[in-house]
UniProtKB/TrEMBL annotation:
Family matches, as PROSITE patterns: PABS_2
Domain PABS: 1-218
Active site (catalytic residues): 140 (proton acceptor)
InterPro entries cross-referenced by the UniProt entry: PABS, SAM-dependent_MTases_sf
Keywords linked to the UniProt accession: Polyamine biosynthesis, Transferase
Keyword Cell membrane: no
Protein's recorded name: Spermidine synthase
Family: Belongs to the spermidine/spermine synthase family.
Amino acid sequence: MKSSASQPSEVNLSEHDGVRHLHLGTEWVQGSMRIDAPFDIELEYVQRMMAWLLFVPPASVAGRHAMQLGLGAGAITKFCHKRLRMTCTAIELNPRVADVCRAWFKLPAEDERLRVVIADAAAEIRRDEWLGTVDALAVDLYDDEAAAPVLDSAAFYADCRRLLTEDGSMTVNLFGRSASFERSLARIAEAFGERAVWAFKPTREGNAVVLAQRTPTRPKRAALQAQAEAVQARWGLPASKWLRVFKPIEK
């Protein structure tokens, strides 16, 4: 999603080996869906955006509120809505992206548990109605070239923190092999506190997911392992593998 007042990007599709991809006017992939499994999460880094599940009892997930900033192909919103049975809000600047998600990426129609808001994320998340209501916030805001996050200031991350419930978490997609990664990590730590921040090693494609908790916790390794196994068994996410490459940034 592009978060600015500029002309909305052209939206294009491609397909390869049974996977449909979303593009915003360039060859860069902005989201993907396996056509015969539309409510699964196809991309590895997007699966890792669900790492907040490691900190929430599985039985309590249904009915919580998930918010996605930057709809892309809607993978997180669809998974949270269909598989986790959560209440979901997606904030997307480009109305064409939302239209394409509905037509080509199986985004369900809006109902009492699913709302798509066409708005600039930076302004929308400051609205009082959202404050303290979000249990799982997914931030994936990139421009057409997917070169750097569009919203990446300490002030923006502080606004994100204010959205969260006391046991809520934010996950953010960053490029782990770029020079901007450490700057982004520092800004998240400034907003949340270093003890609240966890990070994955980059995927093969270079995406590094960072998680920040509204209220920092440090579960013991055995408890995290048991939680990961429960997440994997219940929802099919490769959560046990996550623990090999997922660590708090402050020891």
